[in-house]
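Dissemination and training. As part of the outreach component of the grant, students in the summer workshop were shown how a complex can be specified as a set of sequence lines and then modelled as a single object. The example used during the hands-on session is reproduced here so that future cohorts can follow it. Participants entered these lines:
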Amino acid sequence: MKLTILGCYSATPRIIAQTTAQVLETRGHHFLIDCGEGTQIELRRHKLKFNQIKHIFISHLHGDHYFGLIGLISTFRLLKREADLYIYGPKGIKDIITLQLKLSKSWTDFNLFFHELESTDSECIFEDDKVSVYTIPLIHRIYTNGFLFVEKAFDRKLNVEKAEEKNIDKAYFRKLKQGSDILNRDGIFIKNAEVTSIGVKPKSYAFCSDTAYSEAIVPIIKSVDALYHESTFLESQESLCIHTKHSTAKQAATIAKKAEVGTLILGHYSSRYKDLRLFKSEAETVFRPVELATDGKVFAI
Amino acid sequence: MKLTILGCYSATPRIIAQTTAQVLETRGHHFLIDCGEGTQIELRRHKLKFNQIKHIFISHLHGDHYFGLIGLISTFRLLKREADLYIYGPKGIKDIITLQLKLSKSWTDFNLFFHELESTDSECIFEDDKVSVYTIPLIHRIYTNGFLFVEKAFDRKLNVEKAEEKNIDKAYFRKLKQGSDILNRDGIFIKNAEVTSIGVKPKSYAFCSDTAYSEAIVPIIKSVDALYHESTFLESQESLCIHTKHSTAKQAATIAKKAEVGTLILGHYSSRYKDLRLFKSEAETVFRPVELATDGKVFAI
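and obtained this result:
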């Protein structure tokens, strides 16, 4: 998995601080997660190809997480996109987009599918033979979901030399990679483990923004390889979390610890903080390793 | 008048090319004209204060002219704006904005007044004792208006030395500046022109984007000091104007010539052209002077 942070600041876009958007590349997919104002420019800046984006996941309808969506869709249209586009987001997102397309008389020539979310239980919203995507119900001022991306098992790794030694016909290689036992050219039974080893370990990534501290998400994100959890404030401003329903860096780290995740990535910083290292050091008092999201940063998961 | 170009490119925002937005400063007003995606960032970049903007004029509902509006309004809210905000634009703009405010549960604490436009005749949409603003009906793929900003007469310039010589009481100075004749301390009739001269010449500015070539606008914009007229294409691509309802640089210059304007400012360039000087030289075959808008450029009118 490769995660590119296009924007990771809260509230309003500024000259050197973009609002939330990120692209997760996994098993041939380029999933766009949230789409703050100016996301299309950040996609260009980081040379991410527009046409590779087929699925867009919107956490909630606060502007810093979706105001760039209508512009991105319009640009897709102007660039004569043909590929289908799937948008997953809270109920109402379809009305917002279609009202603007209607009033500008700018219907898209590509298919635009809306998958509106209303459930407060975690549900599978996308699945193919390589990846599944689940919602993570979050606690915020309005209806909000995080998203969990889980890779399916990779093929087993075939030792071709050994397979040839064992006189196995090439036609069986695919089946071996998929884990089957087979018969060789001499009719001898070959156990799969004799010629294969475990493949690449499938990875998982959880995006949780925006949210108040919520232990209810722990079982959903248990043991993910990487967790992006918002940390709008530091512990010294914890009181601001109550009204705004955001989290501190320490709270994010507590969730990471309880869920036993691989790596915690912090983001969604309030503009009041000039030194992001304070978020890292605060979180590290509870959990390690901690990474700081910054605009343009790329994480290999 | 001072005109700051925040963005002057057509279609889609790119890393170094912003879509349409400009600020006209005149007689204490800071009028925002159009508001493409990212306008709030360009306002910050050019150090234009958010709170000075009280009136926003939207020409039409193509995204490159208004996708930044909801973000700007949201930022005003986050910055705890108190001043009223007036938005002038095509019917539908109120629905677009209020739907998004409603779904995000983010109603503004300041008053938001919508003045929705439907008329295809030029009309006065704003007036105070210093400035009037009129619509300029344009021809485009959807309902579109340009805007004409006309300063009202400035006070006459009082020659204080002469007035004292003529034994005029200071209490009459205001009346003299406003053009009245008066009686001096000796009861002698003083004609206004004896102690005043003509004041600063009031200025006018017309913004015309987007539009096909339309001579119908000539009487409305007659003799304006500066005309911003779109020139999406060069004459060599004139055929593209027919379907898209845009203008060439030459057509813009022809309108400027017929309307006998002071200066023609070109903008709304298609991204297909790398050398903007071609627009200037093409327009200059018909009319002079011609200026090229570029992002961040400031014009004194």
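Chain A has a mean pLDDT of 97. Students were then asked to discuss how this feature might be tested experimentally.
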